[in-house]
Amino acid sequence: MLPYTTLAAAEASLGRALTYPEALWLKYSATKSDYFLYCHNLIFLFLVFTVVPLYYVGLEIVFKNIQVYKIQPKIKFSYSEVFGCYKEVMRMFILVVGPLQLVSYPSIQMIGIRTSLPLPSIYEIIAQLTVYFIVEDYTNYWIHRFLHTEWGLYEKIHKVHHEYTAPISYAAPYAHWAEVLILGIPSFLGPAMAPGHMITFWLWIALRQVEAIETHSGYEIPWTLTKYIPFYGGADYHDYHHYVGGQSQSNFASVFTYCDYIYGTDKGYRCQKRLLRQLKEGMKSNSEQNQVPDSTSPPDFKFD
Question: Which of 120, 110, 273, 266 is nearest to 196 (CA)?
Fold first, then answer.
């Protein structure tokens, strides 16, 4: 809760006039406890889990040609199956995610997430979110890799998430309750290392889930803006991990690709992409030869 409730008191404390966003924050949060503000995460997560996947469902309904961007076009889910997945996600939300949010506030107090004025600048928010994503990605990589080992309890825990060998947007948070708890650790480490404002924390929790939904969408959509993020994996990158399934020892990273590249766990994915590229080049070469009868050189396939 802010130590002041009026605009004059806030400006006197800061020694300057409040910006418009700061005035809005003061008006909204001045009489609310920090715990109440923290619990807004429940609302944001519910909205993200419910609304964001509808974007991909809507694309399927409105744009029939969207199927050309589907990564595994042979696998289709009925709307009843998609809704069934959503119901399971909401069940886990009510039984695990919600209670975890309600009891985890002391850890937020301990690391120093603040609700006070002044608000962080846009540059501070971007810098902290960048740190959060990098820290989460690196930590998640090793936990995810551990979950795929025999002694990492794949059969008892992580296999639940891999029930969707062709992932769909609503299946991003679909997992065993123990995995939900375990993967909360990487999400917490970034804010613990670089604690910021509650607004930054809200953005972090929401954006991380939006990113997870995109990478589980099952669509490699060419107009997505995340394609311009350096080392970003995306839907095609993570889809390969689900396609291979429980035996997968490739593409463990949650957001970026550098960990898999450094530690050599993207070789299967890169090999598949190389073979597909050679196959497409061979088909293109054959097509050109059919148009020019006097060209008799066969396509050059190199499987290195």
Answer: 120
